[in-house]
Amino acid sequence: MAECPGPEMVRPSVLLCLALVCVCAAFGQAAPDADAVRARGCASSDSDAALTIRPDDPRWPAFVAWAEDRRLLTWRLLGFRAGAGVSLVWAAGTEWEAQVTLPMGQALGHLIAERNWRDVDFPEFFAERGGVYGINLAERLAMLDPGSPAPWQAFFDSLADTRLSARVSAIAPDGQSAEVSFGSGRVVTYSAERLWLDLSSFLTDCHIAEFLQTHDQSGQPDPPSPASEPGPEPTAAAPGQAVYERQCSGCHGIRGDGQGMFAAHLSPRSRDFTQARFRYRSTPTGQLPTDEDVYRSVAHGLAGSGMPAFQAFLSPADIRDVVTYIKRFSARFERDPAPRPLALPDPPAVSAERIARGAQLYEDSGCTSCHGDTGKGDGRSGQDLKTSEGEPITPRDLTDKWRFRGGFSAQAVFQRLMTGMDGSSMASYSDALTEDQTWDLVFYVLELSPQDRPQARDTTPHSGGLDGNT
Ligand code: HEC
Ligand code: HEC
């Protein structure tokens, strides 16, 4: 997939640069893939190398219908390409046929948010790899070999003969939403913005010249050309911006407000970075995280949520850059004093006495009111909780430590209790508990989970599972 071109790549034409930078900035989507099959003889270096017709264009509904008529709105899975993403062929068998590689962040948005693929949907694949836990596919594959894309390769190779495919099966009259059907009959609704993202991954104005000509002749007003309007001065892309827009914006939104196009499918929702409230920190409550804190969340992901572990797909340098980039979404990172981590001592030896004292503290400190007597997360006050953004949130099930998002080492849990989880209802206990008491409580919390992670018993694939041949 081509990068959104930086100004230096298109210096000969500042106007083209403006047009592409606008489109890229608005949708976080790259211009069509330079490697793609050059359908209809259009080269991606042409001056109309972008799809300028957009969902707010009066011709959009007619355009989508035109594209559907020509069987452009179909795709088939080709496979996984380490270091690049997931390859698809669009409009197979037509003169527009093109191969496109989705960056992993977008592919994950599709697989684990829109499609809700879980390990239980692929019992055969995981049977020889330790079984299934009822968790999302990205989390399960990351467990096999953290930091390596190899499990993804194996997974996609195992799908190789299924020829997964999809097509747009219905379009709302105003073109503002479409139903996409997969082989098994499963249907996912796409917003117009989502459809644009897909279409613009392989179509440019050159490819749709036939449509544009008829519509201009039939008296439709020409849309204002982005190139002819004064746009923002092209500025050098900030470090991490391209990575953010390709890998993160689908969930976190191009402006970092958590409103990406996959966000509606995610529970919990993706974080709004403009609020600068981070939960997995080493710093006191109310303070910003350190770069290392954010790095950890991006590299290792947040278990039990839709936040993937990017260490298998991005280099350490890319992760550092994207961490720098997301700090631009809140002025607090410039204004506030540099965050200072709380001390994180080595854990003392665990003992039966400590666990017993921890059990008492669990009651006395009010953990039961939210997490419940047995830790299942079913306490009375825990039922109608909301995050600071007003999203419903449930207390963590403490009997399943594998789903602790900040990790389940004694030190990680100690840190959560000390720092609190800002923006959720999980407060900091650094004033209420001494260091020694905190360790007692940590050891008790870790005792609430069984020795071994329980396997999911129901392995019937759910409706979002593998789609058959089409
Ligand atoms: C498939 C959707 C998805 C993608 C792609 C994604 N995220 Fe997230 N992210 C989430 C969700 C969901 C949460 C919230 C999890 C929670 O509240 O427990 C989150 C939370 C976070 C957090 C919050 C950590 C904290 O301390 O509160 C950071 C930082 C983050 N994401 C960074 C990124 C970066 C950087 C990228 C791109 C490299 C990215 N995310 C891509 C879904 C996504
Ligand atoms: C007011 C309700 C409330 C109380 C009281 C409360 N918690 Fe929580 N706790 C939560 C919520 C909500 C979450 C989930 C936050 C999230 O998902 O972002 C949570 C998350 C956690 C986590 C998971 C951390 C992770 O990495 O995922 C642990 C461990 C935890 N709480 C332990 C405790 C302990 C021990 C106490 C008592 C000292 C306590 N909680 C008191 C609401 C509460």
Brief account:
32% of the residues lie in helices and 8% in strands. The chain has 470 residues and is an alpha+beta fold.
Average pLDDT works out at 86
Uncertain segments are 1-38, 226-231
Number of continuous helical runs: 16
- Specify Rg, calculated over alpha carbons: 24 Å
Q: Total domains, how many? A: 3
Strand order of the largest sheet: 3-2-1-4-5-6
Walkthrough of the structure:
It contains 16 helices and six strands. It has 470 residues and is α+β, with helices and mostly antiparallel strands. It has three domains: 184 residues, no CATH class; 95 residues, Orthogonal Bundle (Cytochrome Bc1 Complex, Chain D, domain 2), CATH 1.10.760.10; 96 residues, Cytochrome c-like domain (Cytochrome Bc1 Complex, Chain D, domain 2, Orthogonal Bundle), CATH 1.10.760.10. The chain has a six-stranded antiparallel β-sheet with strand order 3-2-1-4-5-6. Strand 4 and strand 5 form a beta hairpin. Helix 3 runs parallel beside helix 9 and helix 10 packs across helix 11. The longest helix is centred in the first third of the chain and has 14 residues. The protein starts with 13 loop residues before the first helix and ends in a 23-residue tail after the last helix. The site of one heme C has 27 residues, from helix 14, helix 15 and helix 16. One heme C binds next to helix 14, helix 15 and helix 16.
